[in-house]
Design a protein that fits this description.
The chain is α+β, with helices and mostly antiparallel strands and 188 residues long. The protein has five helices and ten strands. Strand 8 (124-132), helix 4 (143-153) and strand 9 form a beta-alpha-beta unit.
């Protein structure tokens, strides 16, 4: 079981977005994907993440979209290779799985688990469930910054995102590339 601690980061929406060009054949999307595209992306995600307890599914996707969450993704060769979720209203439902990892906005998991509503403020967006295909991880293709820029367009003042303490490479990425500030240490 992990130690259930997270660092909370904040990235101001200040118009400064050092976003590189995507490689040829890659495309960033803010529109809803087709079911087939989403299912194939989730299949690859599950394969690489090992189907952790509390992973979101198609039904959770629809619940999230109906509740104002935004799904942003990158495709390559008409396949999803990266995604991130945003909650521009600043509220997210959160629970913990049996290994002590956080589970966000996943009603299929919440039925048998305690759930809290986390509120980071209506002027902020909460960013969660970021993923990039193993093959492209570490290449500097910043899914998050593109998504953060979309939230700025909606008038958000900052982006809040949490990272588990064991995830050292993501913590470094948040500080070095996302230019996020550590604003809190969270314990379950």
């Amino acid at each position: 079981m992990n130690d259930m601690k997270q660092l909370r980061f904040q990235r101001p929406c200040n118009g400064h977005w050092p976003i590189e060009e995507l490689p040829k054949g890659w495309k960033y999307h803010t529109e809803e994907p087709t079911i087939e595209l989403l299912e194939s992306g989730l299949k690859l995600f599950r394969k690489q993440i090992n189907n952790y307890d509390g992973m979101w599914n198609i039904d959770d996707y629809f619940w999230r979209v109906e509740n104002g969450r935004k799904f942003h993704y990158i495709t390559k060769d008409d396949k999803i290779i990266s995604f991130v979720w945003q909650s521009p209203g600043g509220k997210v439902k959160k629970s913990w799985n049996k290994t002590g990892s956080p589970v966000y906005d996943t009603p299929s998991f919440f039925k048998s688990n305690d759930v809290e509503t986390m509120n980071v403020g209506k002027d902020n967006s909460y960013s969660y469930n970021t993923w990039i295909c193993d093959e492209y991880r570490g290449l500097g293709k910043h899914m998050n910054l593109r998504s953060f820029r979309e939230m700025e367009k909606l008038g958000k003042k900052s982006i809040i995102h949490d990272v588990e303490m064991w995830n050292k490479s993501t913590i470094i990425h948040c500080i070095k590339y996302l230019e996020s500030d550590i604003i809190d240490l969270l314990e379950k």
